[in-house]
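[Meeting: bench + compute handoff]

Bench side (C.D.) handed over the final construct sequence. Compute side (W.E.) agreed to return the predicted structure before the next meeting so the bench team could plan truncations. Sequence as handed over:
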Amino acid sequence: MAKTNTNKLPGQVVLVMQGGGALGAFQAGVYEGMHEAGIEPDWVVGTSIGAINGAIIAGNKPEKRLARLRDFWELVASAPTSSAPWSAFGLGNLIHNLGAVSSGIPGFFTPNLRALYGSNVSAGIADASFYSTDPLRDTLDHFVNFGLIAQGMTRLTLGAVNVASGRMRYFDSRDDAVGLEHVMASGALPPAFPAIEIDGEYYWDGGIYSNTPLEVVMDDKPRRDAVIFAAQLWQQEDELPNTVAKVMSRLKDIQYSSRAESHTARQQQIHHLRHVVRELGRLMPAALRATPEAKELMDWGCGTVMHILPMQAPAVEGEDHTKDLDFTPGGIRARWDAGREFAQRKIAAAPWNDAYDPVMGIVVHA
């Protein structure tokens, strides 16, 4: 039997953001669409550029968030350079984007001159990279109020991978202090950026392990009803590539989309079983339900419902495998606008009010 939601937003609001460099402007646009509709996230989960956007959102009061995001993206927008001579050879975007990062991105990263000595020179884990992210440290210190994050108004969770163990770790402001180093670690994509030390351990960008941190929301305890805005930057599906350049682009898409659909499908199975356990518990006689053994088994069940709104960034005309390096004002503006328009359409449709199977713990509104 179908059930219909009547509440405007049935549960906590969660904003989940992937990593993807310059593609993260789409996420800022998604937030703008939410903000314009009066929807502020209770919980922000991010990896890499999603961690940076997330820290700016959680680290500012709602009335200042949008302006702070705009200031950040205007800062990192590199000045446009002409690629006209290369366009005839199909290399316009490639030359443009690679040229834009040859001297770094303002407020983000600068070349690490030690890298000029060669890739086999021992530099130490904290300096073995092509770029230095010291400018990002200053930028985050300027744009993010970490004291506000500590107050817990908006929960912030950031994904990073331990370099030594190869295991994913989520730093969560609900449980521990989340500061500048945690944001830096979540965005430390090797070999471009150096590993970041936290409590004696070194961490890299969580995107190299899992670039779609939806699982941390679905596995959260205690489980809660939620509406999850999942801002996804990479194309899970696309046409077959027919050039080397397109092969390289498709490779990145598959690698960093991180099997978001299969992860979600698996979680749907798990949460469906949790709902089945709950329903079976209700069928037990009261005396049996009251036994310690039955209570322990019934604890595996739940009745929460999570509505997932996948928000897939569209491909921008002319982009190639360097699209995540496209920090040009035009590229950022196009992706920001796309994110805002996508969010506006989703929110106007209010799919969380649609009928759904009450035994489904996770409902995906594609």
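W.E. noted at the follow-up: The mean pLDDT is 88. C.D. will use this when planning the next construct.
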